[in-house]
Design goal:
It is built from 3 helices and 33 strands. By secondary structure, the protein is mostly beta strands. The structure holds fe (ii) ion (FE2).
Length: 450
């Protein structure tokens, strides 16, 4: 792989993009793949088709997927999402006239989720891209003409109703739009929401009855956009707030709560407890105050919104740097006991040479205990997805799956761990070519999309 000194850190080491799109069917497996796992583990990431991008968020979406069925790993595939940037690599990325306003001009590089029979590659500034079961691109979707603006990379699928709750943010009014997709895949609600300005809202929260928006001081800057630079910067003048709205509500129903300035890319989960709303988040003190690579270390915090008093408390749960928080899909919006994170996320991944001993963290939010899986020396995991066992008897009775990069061999593995025991010994390991570091992944069971 290339380690040319001139390349920015986000294109070196295991950030180096892969060019070849491969299909491998004779995969080496160690351990036993649970026969109950029928579906695809898919993960998205930025993999610039030209080999170069100005920022780690601006590469072209590439999906790395593995198909499991009957205890076998049937295939591994990596595929570009076929966007206009892949068919035309000279197309400008930050272009007020076109790429920021044409909703099909997505990099489609941030997340990949299953919902209502579809696999969707998502990025937060544009339409979702539909993929088929072999990770080939079908095309962008506007939900039968009902979606006219951006769609988040972090929708939440309600475990009770099957609805996919989402939103979109834009640098132009309306700055925020709430979106609700039915269990059948129909966009049934589109609400413009009033926020303080063009805030970058990467993620949000859903509880049993509410959506909670994070209106935070990372704002769109027209001057940066006109120069073709990453068009978001920190603002010391923009108030940080949380907005609580009933899931079927409208703009006038939103109740806003002031919080201390900070940035949160990713909440772990949120839920209601009588007149309180609990939100666990990977909190950063700020972002992009000193330029577009200014990422302070995130750590796990708990916000408690007291809807009776109107106050929000912020409790730091741990000081260990960690990101990519997840909970089981079955407790999204419900009380969670356990949450999973990736330790030392950004700092370790940008280290050269990579020496980190990566770990998957498990927080017991009831007891405050932290456990971890050590994935080995010189090895780093990505975000982990939790999949319950077929006969699960507790919230943590399931599997954690992710891609692990091994700097010792410059290859990767798809690894399934036991979330209950958090044993360092994998349940199963599938040997793969190098899978570059990426963003978000999910297990998409065949029952959701096939
Ligand atoms: Fe994200």
């Amino acid at each position: 792989m290339s380690n040319t000194e001139e390349l920015p850190l986000h294109l070196r080491g295991n950030w180096t993009p892969v060019q070849e799109q491969r299909t491998i069917t004779d995969l080496e497996v160690r351990g036993t793949i649970p026969a109950e796992l029928d579906g695809r583990y898919v993960r998205n990431g930025a993999n610039p088709v030209t080999g170069f991008s100005d920022h780690p968020f601006l590469g072209d979406g590439m999906i790395h997927g593995i198909r499991l069925r009957d205890g076998n790993a049937e295939w591994y595939r990596n595929r570009y999402v076929q966007t206009p940037f892949v068919s035309n690599p000279d197309k400008p990325i930050i272009d007020m006239a076109e790429s920021l306003t044409d909703m099909a001009s997505s990099k489609a590089n941030t997340n990949v989720v299953g919902h209502a029979g579809q696999i969707l590659a998502l990025e937060e500034g544009h339409f979702p891209y539909v993929l088929d079961g072999n990770l080939e691109t079908v095309g962008p979707t506007d939900y039968q003409g009902k979606l006219s603006g951006p769609f988040t990379a972090h929708p939440k699928v309600c475990p009770t109703t099957g609805e996919m709750i989402a939103f979109g943010y834009s640098m132009m009014e309306p700055y925020l739009t709430y979106l609700r997709v039915s269990a059948g895949g129909e966009l049934v609600q589109v609400e413009n929401i009033t926020v303080g300005g063009p805030t970058m809202m990467h993620d949000f929260n859903v509880t049993e009855n509410n959506a909670v928006f994070m209106d935070l001081p990372a704002v769109f800057d027209l001057e940066l956009a006109m120069r073709g630079e990453m068009p978001i910067r920190w603002s010391d003048d923009y108030a940080a707030r949380l907005g609580v709205m009933p899931r079927t509500g409208t703009d006038s129903d939103v109740v806003w709560y002031d919080i201390d300035p900070c940035y949160v890319f990713h909440p772990m989960n949120s839920y209601e407890n009588e007149d309180k709303i609990i939100i666990d988040v990977a909190r950063l003190d700020h972002i992009w105050r000193d330029g577009p690579m200014d990422f302070p270390e995130p750590a796990l915090h708990r916000w408690t919104i007291d809807t009776a008093s109107g106050k929000v408390t912020d409790e730091q749960i741990d000081d260990l740097p960690a990101e990519f928080p997840r909970v089981p899909e079955a407790v999204v919006g419900r009380k969670h006991q356990f949450g999973y994170m990736m330790a030392n996320a950004a700092a370790s991944a940008f280290e050269e040479p990579l020496s980190a001993d990566g770990a998957i963290l498990k927080y017991d939010l009831d007891s405050g205990a932290r456990d971890q899986i050590d994935v080995g020396s010189g090895r780093l995991p990505g975000e982990s997805s939790f999949v319950p066992k077929a006969d699960a008897t507790s919230e943590d009775d399931g599997y954690l799956m992710t891609y692990v990069f091994d700097a010792n061999t410059d290859t990767s593995e798809y690894v399934i761990y036991d979330a209950g025991s958090m044993s360092n010994e994998p349940v199963a390991t599938v040997s793969l070519p190098r899978v570059p570091f990426g963003f978000h992944g999910n297990w998409v069971p065949s029952s959701t999309a096939d």
